[in-house]
Amino acid sequence: MSASLEQVSAVRERARLIRRSALKMVFDARLGHPGGDMSSADILAALYFGVLRIDPGNPKDPDRDRFVMSKGHCSGAFYSALAMAGFFPESELATYMKPLSLLNAHPSKAYLPGVETSTGPLGHGMPVAVGIAIAGQIDGASYRTYVLTGDGEQQEG
User: Fold this and answer.
1) How confident is the model at residue 151 (pLDDT cuts 50, 70, 90)?
2) Domain range list for the chain
């Protein structure tokens, strides 16, 4: 099934908005990883607004697709995508990296709906995603598992 020109255009616009939001968050916080956020935006936009079978109103749906942001240092872009997808209010993005914020440096499953697993330690997300995928196969589940990893973490060994 191919995407229409309108769908592609809409995903491109979401990627632009993710970049803009993430850059503002990093600038305001004076913390973060803007390069990784920028490189993640297209993939996050394509997944959240064109591929993933998810329901922000039911983030624990057992049939949902799973996405692991192994590249956890790129939390600005990830949080922006989650907020735009409806997992939490976009106004929450203004609290990025502030004391007691749910949006800390690395995504935490304990704090935010839509975060499949806590990440940040380099190389951590890929084996978790593989485990999720294998568990799905064993259970005969219909969900799909996706993971976004970066070249830096692939060098961690």
Assistant:
1) confident
2) 5-152
Total-model pTM: 0.94
CATH architecture of 5-152: 3-Layer(aba) Sandwich (3.40)
Which two tokens mark 87?
A: 């997992």
Task: Specify the residue for token string 């990093």.
Answer: 26
Query: CA 143 to CA 27: how far, in whole Å?
Result: 36
Provide the residue type at 62 as one letter.
P
CA nearest to 91, candidates 79, 108, 78: 79
125 Cβ contact partners less than 8 Å away, ≥ 6 residues apart: 68, 69, 70, 71, 72, 117, 119, 147, 148, 149, 153
Q: Are 61 and 87 in contact (CB under 8 A)?
A: no
16-25, 50-59, 83-92, 122-131: least confidently modelled range: 122-131
